Amino acid sequence: MAAPLKSATNAVKKILMTRPTYFTVKYSINPWMDPSVPVNEEKAGKQWETLKSALESAGAAIEVLEPNGAENFPDLVFAANAAVVRGKRAYLANFHYAERKGEKFFFDRWFKENGYETVGDDEIAFEGAGDALWAQKNRSKLFCGVGPRTDARALDDVAKKLKNDEPFTVFGCQLVDPRFYHIDTCFCPLNEEVAIWYPKAFDQVSQHNMKNEIELVAVNEKDAKNFACNAVVVGKNVVMNQGSDETGKTLEKLGYKPIFVDMSEFIKSGGSAKCCTLLLE
């Protein structure tokens, strides 16, 4: 593989990842999860390391949360769900399902130990940057998935508690397909003005509203089911699960370099490259 392109115009992205020490599928809380289909834990570990290396080669700086004491929380590896971050403030997730609620302790501890102020609401379901993606200059727009995992009440609370000197607007996007239960499984901002998405994951009103806020380029259903939108953008590099060739061609036409990695073990749990990462800055 040729060396990834680096963008001289973009600041280094700082990303949090959680090592998959205890990753497995032992319950089912989305249509992808089947405990009878075992995870190859050794292979998952190698896939995670490959993803981390690909992101670093693309120009990202990776922070790693070691899941010490988190034996009962196999989904802690999906760091995207930890929080949504603005500056040095993290609005923590309040997980919808009981199986994941205990993850909050580990993420809260990591943020506090690393100089972040943590906020949130224990009464409102919200699943972090899995359901909250920044776009536009200075992160002036926050697209939030609502429905399956995140309560619509979170929109106002996030806006209030992440408020700082740079204004931003929160947009609620209703998710309607159970396969795409977080917004980061079906929507991926590439830069300040353009995003890829799978339109049918959203209701008609959300589709209309989103088109008014950002230029959208659709991916087909085959690639959407292959988690093409669950990608990590670093400069002009887009790191994503292997196999989405049509989306790869689309990205190249848009001036991006797709970098394909094997995320097959994590897809057994309904997550891919983006789910394993949290943008810090």
Automatic annotation (TrEMBL):
What SUPFAM superfamilies does this protein's entry cite? Pentein (SSF55909)
Query: What GO annotations for molecular function exist for this entry?
Result: arginine deiminase activity
Where on the tree of life does the source sit, at the highest rank? Answer: Eukaryota
Matching entries from Pfam families are given as: DDAH_eukar
Q: What GO biological process, any one, is recorded here?
A: L-arginine deiminase pathway
Q: What is this protein called?
A: Amidinotransferase
